[in-house]
Write a sequence for this structure.
């Protein structure tokens, strides 16, 4: 699991990788729409985040995730709520 | 009356990617059956199959597509591309709305389904990839083909076990005859070489054992036949309304002149005689042909004890004295039983027989069986003129599909 301060970096990296974008084109303020992330891509990314950070994001939180910042906030909240990584 | 011709053909099978590889193998009487390598065999009993272990989806499809395509659908996409590019179709916006895809499958995305269940029940994994459902679903192949070629007309999936592709092609032709479409991409695909599926087939006790030489394990109509061998792949054809195809000067592989679907309504696995016979008669009637006008029958020919003797009885019942003169072969002896893809690959083999004047053989035929006493074109392809031919598919569940093709 990455250190908390590298979480933003890791999220940007994963998004860039999935969407095949240069990492510098993805910022915390980028929205999913701007990055061309549709609902299907969103599910794929969610799965990747859950696997990478060993946590679970509830459906109601997932539905609110429309930008990179919202992703990192949701991931931080999930990590804080469940500091023991769930095993998979 | 609107008539239907075939203007494109595409195939992926254990004999290779593409119709040329399929035909080269069939004409040479070469079996694509070998020991299974593409899935875990640890809990299987020396499994064999007509598998295409060299298939590299990445050589044909983009990584974005591959995320969403299970093995069966990837086979279908590759076969469809060969058929589509061969047909040389360019559709206008309006024509796209009268073009569709009808792709059958017996088991859909069972590769992913098997992995998903294994992850959950065997490995205790608590999460599964969100694309699991779009990969597993039986209409994935039809939908991906519709998206790739922007076909906006009737697009469907038929799942009738071993008859899926024949029903898909037959019903697609009916859509064209009825005026509901002008162009249909039709066929079938399956990828049943997954541990859970092979195990289930082992449970039915109909699989041929590996023996010393797996390539010779599938022996349709031979007295020493010992069961079927699973295969994988896809066959896809382009069906087109005849006037349209002629107007644009398309290469016509043959006319799909007859089709019939019947049900035994009797037994879930044992084949019947009357309903399959009626399917052949009805398909011939639609084609306007007498039984004597058929020169070649591509048999269902699974190489189970019961299928081959029953199919022989069916052929005798329909063709009478002519049954002894018509050439019959089971190409499953080489490409295996490709489940929901079989009917399409076998129709393509039948069209090639028409075009090339060569009938593919029944491989591994060793010993005459008094219950199978017709001409099965044993072991060696035969040069002969074929003007009209029949392709049989008789599925578990008693669902029969018969296609008739004639020289265009």
């Amino acid at each position: 699991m990455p250190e908390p301060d590298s979480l933003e970096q890791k999220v940007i990296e994963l998004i860039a990788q999935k969407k095949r974008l240069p990492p510098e084109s993805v910022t915390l303020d980028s929205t999913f729409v701007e990055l061309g992330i549709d609902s299907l891509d969103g599910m794929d990314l969610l799965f990747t985040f859950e696997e990478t950070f060993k946590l679970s994001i509830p459906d109601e939180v997932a539905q609110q995730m429309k930008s990179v910042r919202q992703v990192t906030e949701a991931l931080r909240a999930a990590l804080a709520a469940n500091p023991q990584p769930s095993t998979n | 009356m609107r008539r239907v011709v075939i203007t494109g053909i595409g195939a992926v099978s254990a004999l290779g990617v593409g119709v040329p590889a399929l035909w080269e193998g069939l004409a040479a009487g070469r079996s694509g059956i070998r020991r299974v390598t593409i899935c875990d065999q640890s809990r299987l009993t020396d499994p064999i199959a007509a598998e295409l272990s060299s298939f590299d989806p990445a050589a044909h499809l983009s990584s974005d597509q591959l995320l969403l395509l299970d093995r069966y659908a990837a086979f279908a996409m590759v076969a469809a591309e060969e058929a589509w590019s061969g047909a040389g179709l360019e559709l206008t916006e309006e024509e796209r709305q009268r073009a569709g895809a009808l792709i059958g499958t017996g088991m859909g995305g069972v590769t992913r389904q098997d992995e998903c269940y294994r992850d959950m029940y065997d490995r205790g994994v608590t999460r599964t990839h969100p694309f699991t459902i779009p990969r597993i679903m039986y209409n994935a192949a039809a939908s991906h083909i519709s998206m790739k070629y922007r076909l906006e007309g009737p697009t469907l999936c038929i799942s009738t076990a071993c008859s899926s592709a024949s029903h898909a092609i037959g019903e697609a032709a009916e859509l064209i005859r009825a005026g509901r479409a002008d162009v249909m991409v039709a066929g079938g695909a399956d990828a049943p070489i997954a541990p859970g599926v092979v195990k289930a087939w082992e449970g039915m006790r109909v699989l041929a054992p590996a023996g010393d030489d797996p390539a010779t394990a599938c022996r349709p109509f031979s007295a020493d036949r010992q069961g079927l061998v699973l295969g994988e792949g896809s066959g896809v054809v382009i069906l087109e309304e005849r006037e349209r195809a002629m107007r644009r000067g398309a290469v016509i592989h043959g006319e799909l002149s007859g089709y019939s679907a019947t049900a035994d309504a009797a037994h879930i696995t044992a084949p019947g005689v009357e309903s399959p016979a009626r399917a052949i008669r009805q398909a011939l009637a639609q084609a306007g042909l007498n039984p004597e006008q058929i020169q070649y029958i591509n048999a269902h020919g699974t190489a189970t004890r019961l299928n081959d003797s029953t199919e022989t009885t069916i052929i005798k019942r329909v063709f009478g004295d002519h049954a002894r003169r018509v050439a019959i072969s089971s190409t499953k002896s080489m490409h295996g039983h490709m489940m929901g893809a079989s009917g399409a690959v076998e129709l393509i083999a039948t069209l090639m027989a028409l075009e090339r004047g060569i009938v593919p053989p029944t491989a591994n035929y060793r010993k005459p069986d008094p219950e199978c006493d017709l001409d099965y074109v044993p072991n060696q392809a035969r040069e002969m003129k074929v003007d009209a031919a029949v392709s049989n598919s008789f599925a578990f569940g008693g669902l029969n599909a018969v296609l008739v093709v004639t020289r265009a």
Observations:
- Chain A has four helices and no strands.
